[in-house]
Specification:
single chain; about 450 residues; alpha/beta; Four Helix Bundle (Hemerythrin (Met), subunit A); Rossmann fold; 434 Repressor (Amino-terminal Domain); 3 domains; 8-stranded mixed β-sheet; 21 helices; about 55% helix; about 10% strand; flat; binds guanosine-5'-diphosphate
């Protein structure tokens, strides 16, 4: 995410970091570079100019040049201003109303249908809501099917009327259906076009007026940069929407839309989409995003994701097993699955301060666990709980069953053995014994 921008800002600020004496000249030079980096990232021209002017003013106001660590203060000023630019505070969504109605708007291909599914799934699992998805695209039968497929995948009911050509009616009928059947959130997915056209705008404005939603979200593909910002302006003009959803941020190396949209339309980004899967949705936090852009990682989100997957009961059971020396390959598999649920490896690495930058050219393979999982799946239940019985012929069988080599099986067994020993030591004498074992 935003690799190019992060790189350029890092280079721009590098001159100041670590410099004992900083002159007005190199502050000005740095800010010029920062502005260039923002323009290269497709940030709106006016926004970029205002940004550097504000940072400059603040730098002068705080007498940056005379402070002990001027470089760091400059980085902080840039970070604070980036946060401000992206909205400052985290903006929530309005879920009042019975049911609360959420209207999705945006161009075709922006990721509206995918996001409708992600949001339904998010509300269902995180906020224990009962959402209903509504297909209001009357032009493309495929779009209705697509929403049904998404609904099936996440176990959320989809309301559609394939024969009805009146989207206002469909939306109203859906809300009535929701009231009768105990749904407390209604997510209305509307028709998009490839480009802004009057008929589409009138149609969605009519739906908007008729159903008076608690929340109108504008969905936009982050990779379209300034186009995204211009489309946002047009939709906002007609709908006065409440918030923006930036999709496909996983493929956005520039970041222009994320940085300029708030300052141009004065509406907060509320959610981001970071992949095609249903769990690739995140609440947008401006400060954390600024950290990520400046290569400072996002430890808070990382910890949050870990906590979401953390099951106290499971953890206790696991601890008991380790204490009794019963930690087996099934538990190992379980752990791998927990980690995988936290998100894609590349995404997780990007949240570790410094790691995203250091590993940006390394191809982080999300299938890295696949070989390990295949090996474990090829073991018998007894082999999983008692790995010591795995002899030469068993190894051969496991390797051929999992499509790996005996060498790979050996490697996994060795790693598992080391890990079990380490866990045992951490349980027992704490870190001291472990250090001794590691020869320190
Ligand atoms: P709609 O026409 O606005 O309903 O757009 P869709 O929901 O059909 O999405 C268009 C394409 O973008 C599909 O292939 C989606 O899988 C893909 N897509 C949607 N959101 C994301 C995202 O956050 N990341 C990535 N990489 N792809 C996405």
């Amino acid at each position: 995410m935003f690799d190019n921008l992060s790189d350029k800002l890092d280079k721009a600020l590098h001159v100041l970091k670590g410099h004992g004496s900083i002159t007005e000249v190199n502050v000005a030079e740095t800010l010029k570079e920062v502005r260039r980096a923002l323009l290269d990232a497709d940030v709106n021209f006016k926004t970029a100019k205002e940004f550097t002017n504000t940072v400059k003013e603040k730098a002068l106001g705080q007498n940056v040049l005379t402070t002990l660590q001027p470089g760091q203060l400059m980085v902080k000023l840039v970070k604070d201003e980036l946060t401000e630019l992206m909205g400052g505070e985290t903006a929530g969504i309005n879920l009042s109303g019975t049911p609360s109605v959420i209207l999705m708007s945006g161009l075709q291909g922006s990721g509206k249908t995918t996001f409708s599914g992600k949001l339904a799934n998010y509300l269902k699992t995180k906020k224990t809501k009962k959402p209903l998805l509504v297909a209001c695209d009357i032009y493309r039968p495929a779009a209705i099917n697509q929403l049904h497929v998404v609904g099936d995948q996440i176990g959320v009911e989809v309301y559609s009327e394939p024969e009805n050509k009146n989207p206002v009616q469909i939306a109203q009928n859906a809300i009535a259906h929701a009231k009768q059947n105990g749904f407390n959130v209604v997510i209305v997915d509307t028709a998009g076009r490839l480009a802004i056209d009057e008929a589409m705008m009138t149609e969605i404005a009519n739906v908007h007026k008729a159903i008076n939603p608690q929340e109108t979200l504008f969905v936009v593909d982050a990779m379209t940069g300034q186009d995204a910002v211009n489309t946002a302006k047009a939709f906002n003009h007609r709908l006065n929407f409440d918030g923006v959803v930036l999709t496909k941020l996983d493929g956005d190396t520039r970041g222009g839309a994320a940085i300029s949209i708030k300052s141009v339309v004065d509406k907060p980004i509320k959610f981001i989409g970071t992949g095609e899967k249903m769990d690739a949705i995140d609440v947008f936090h401006p400060a954390r995003m600024a950290d990520r852009i400046l290569g400072m990682g996002d430890v808070v989100s990382l910890v949050e994701r870990a906590q979401e997957q953390f099951d106290e009961e499971e953890a206790r059971k696991l601890q008991k097993k380790i204490a009794k020396n019963q930690f087996g390959f099934d538990d190992f598999l379980n752990q791998i699955q927990q980690v995988k649920k936290m998100g894609s490896m590349k995404d997780l690495v990007g949240m570790i301060p410094g790691a995203g930058k250091a590993l940006k050219d390394v191809d982080i393979d999300d299938d890295a666990f696949k070989g390990i999982e295949a090996i474990i799946h090829s073991m018998t239940p007894k082999e999983r709980t008692e790995p010591t019985i795995i002899n030469g012929s068993r190894k051969k069988r496991i390797a051929s069953g999992s499509g790996t080599s005996v060498q790979q099986v050996n490697q996994l067994l060795k790693q598992f053995d080391q890990m079990s020993k380490m866990m045992k030591m951490m349980q027992g004498g704490g870190g001291r014994k472990m250090m001794q074992a590691m020869g320190r």
